[in-house]
Amino acid sequence: MTYPTVTYAENYTLIDKPITTPWRPGQSQTGYGIKISTDRMLMFNDNKRKYRVYCAIFSNSGSCYVIKKGQWLFVRDYH
Questions:
Q1: Long-range contacts, 23-28 (Cβ 8 Å, 24+)
Q2: pLDDT in tens, 21-71
């Protein structure tokens, strides 16, 4: 059996960038979702572009990630 590969983002800086809407884009009425926007943005050290950090939340756990060139890169140290 083969498992999907998990790729982590490396060499980046996290930036606070609050969302001004009263709800989180991507969040369902239950509070869960696969692409819930967070108040953080990530900027890679070799690039000036900022990427929104999203969180996939189901049950009582979540994984934070960014999408760069169509690829999910997971964030290890989201604080």
A1: 26/54
A2: 777 777 777 778 888 889 999 999 998 899 999 999 888 888 999 999 999
Which residues does residue 73 pair with via DSSP β-bridges, in sequence order?
66
Answer positive or negative: Cα dihedral of 44, 47, 52, 55: negative
Residue 74 reports pLDDT greater than 70: yes
User: Looking at this protein, which amino acid is placed at residue 4?
Assistant: P
58 within 8 A of 31, measured Cβ to Cβ: no
- What is the distance between the alpha carbons of residues 31 and 47, in angstroms, rounded to a whole number? 33
Q: Which amino acid is at 46?
A: D
Q: Please report, for residues 5, 29, 47, 70, the alpha-carbon distance to residue 76 in angstroms, rounded to integers and kept in the order given.
A: 15, 27, 19, 19
Q: How many residues are given for the chain? A: 79
Dihedrals φ, ψ of 19, to 5°?
A: -90, 135
